[in-house]
Amino acid sequence: MSNVKILVVEDESIVAMDIKHRAEVLGYTVTSISPSGEEAIRKVAENPPDLVLMDIVLKGEMDGVEAAQKIRDSYDIPIVYLTAYSDEKTLKRAKVTEPFGYIIKPFEDRELHSAVEVALYKHKMESKLKESEKWLSTTLESIGDAVIATDNEGNIKFMNPIATEVTGWDSEEAMGKPLTDVFRMINEKTGTFIENPVTKVVQNDATIELEEPTILITKEGKKLPIDDSCAPIRDKNGDVLGVALIFKDITERRKAEKEKEELLKEKARGELSSFVLSALPVFASNIPPQIRNNIARSFSDRFERNMKPKFEEELKKCLEDYDNTTADIIFKCYISWLSEFLLNLGINSEETKGHENSIKLLNCPWIEENETSPMFCLICRAIIIRSFTWTEIKGNVEQKTCMADGAGECVFKFLHLNG
After folding, report:
1. Mind listing the domains of the chain with CATH numbers?
2. Is the pTM higher than 0.70?
3. Which residues contact 351 (CB under 8 A, 6 or more apart)?
4. Which residues form the Response regulatory domain (predicted)?
């Protein structure tokens, strides 16, 4: 943390010095304080920080939103906005700059720390994702195709160097052998051998793509995932002389795709944590009760706007595995989604089946906060109760136990489920 450099952009000198002091107490290094957007841009160019704390309302010709946009256009630096109030038009402009967070004045040290750490984490994940996409693109462009040509009987007549490398067979050794001796394929899911593609091409007189996912068994017995297609080789009269099998080893591509998928999950976890942490102002001691209640009511609505479309997408995918759609199946898909959702927040859960349908939250990553305030228990309650309504199952949710009350686990029971 001590290596994190922060630029503070604030036109009120007393406020700026207070922010600097609090950031340094938390272990961050404040490289500079800029009272204007123009100076902030110059400071970033002279000594790029790891993060910018930008007040939205600044004196002068350039406000914080315009300064943030210019910094974003030229530098890959995360920006967190500081604001006490803003009109709707300004907030819309601020959203366009894609900030990594907001801090509402006045704020607690914990809120400052959370906002900075989440912003740095999200920026790190986005940077890794960009690197992964660039690496994946370079990998795909550099991979060549392997080619094997056969006659109408399926005997090998040609192999290019890449084909010999992938299959493990020397071209002279493979010449004249049946394709099925050299190019042995199985279906990755079933493990069954795939029919000789030459036969299909000759019979159908057309190009075919082999069934997916296809696994090639090399001469040494190694199993490689491949993309492949088969096309007829014709003479000038259009008669079929043989078949060309074109394929590529996609091991590296799969690896890159898996890494990208993991990075996307990590990025999603960061965004999810940031979304939940955005509810902190609801429980700030200096928020008037009426405003607190309005924010509390809006949290469930914001949660639904952000998460319901993703839930519906996952539910649709889950239901594709079933022939019939019943309440029991929808509930099964819902619990699977909810468990994964909670896990991304660092919460382990356990489903109870049988006479009672319930879910137990086995831990709370914010237990220290819960010792003095049940804020995250309230958030979990809002998440579970609201998300259950998306299933359109007739029933309701009842919370049986709560960690904030001293229980070892939070238990939510789903009542009156119909099959």
Report:
1. 5-140 (3.40.50.2300), 144-252 (3.30.450.20), 279-415 (3.30.1380)
2. no
3. 335, 339, 357, 358, 359, 360
4. 5-120
